[in-house]
Write a structure and sequence with these properties.
Elements lengths: L9 H22 L1 H7 L12 H25 L4 H24 L7 H25 L1
Helix pairs in contact: 1-3, 1-5, 2-5, 3-5, 4-5
């Protein structure tokens, strides 16, 4: 069942990865920058760190998420938009957002529900976007 590397839509993986990475930059650096900073206990207008890990980490994880979705797409033979969006919703809510909430509720997050709302909604939208791209390309 998982011998699907030959069935993966590699162009879809590339486009989905780029789309998810751009969405993350827009989401956390522009649309919700102040609220995201506040959820982490920073000043609303605090500058984003520019360390190599911070700059490389999100794109690497976006690639892993997109590739994992593509593998599951091929294994599950998803070829209709309704199925693709349902898959994106299940993964976005059931794995990505649920895990985000679990991480947020540890004592190190000063505003865990705000963090979970911002990051969780990004994860849901991102998973839906990747799923739509994987099917469309």
């Amino acid at each position: 069942m998982f011998d699907v590397l030959g069935d993966i839509n590699w162009l879809g993986v590339l486009v989905g990865f780029i789309a998810l990475t751009l969405l993350g930059g827009l989401w956390f650096a522009a649309l919700f920058r102040n609220a995201y900073n506040q959820s982490l206990g920073r000043e609303a207008g605090a500058k984003t760190p520019s360390t190599p890990l911070f700059l490389a980490g999100p794109p690497v994880t976006s690639l892993i998420i997109t590739l994992t979705s593509a593998i599951l797409f091929a294994a599950l033979n998803i070829n209709a938009y309704g199925d693709a969006l349902l898959f994106g919703l299940i993964v976005g809510v059931g794995y990505l957002t649920a895990n985000t909430v679990t991480i947020a509720i540890n004592p190190n997050f000063p505003r865990p529900l705000l963090y979970a709302a911002i990051s969780g909604s990004y994860n849901i939208l991102g998973s839906l976007l990747v799923s739509a791209v994987l099917l469309a390309i």
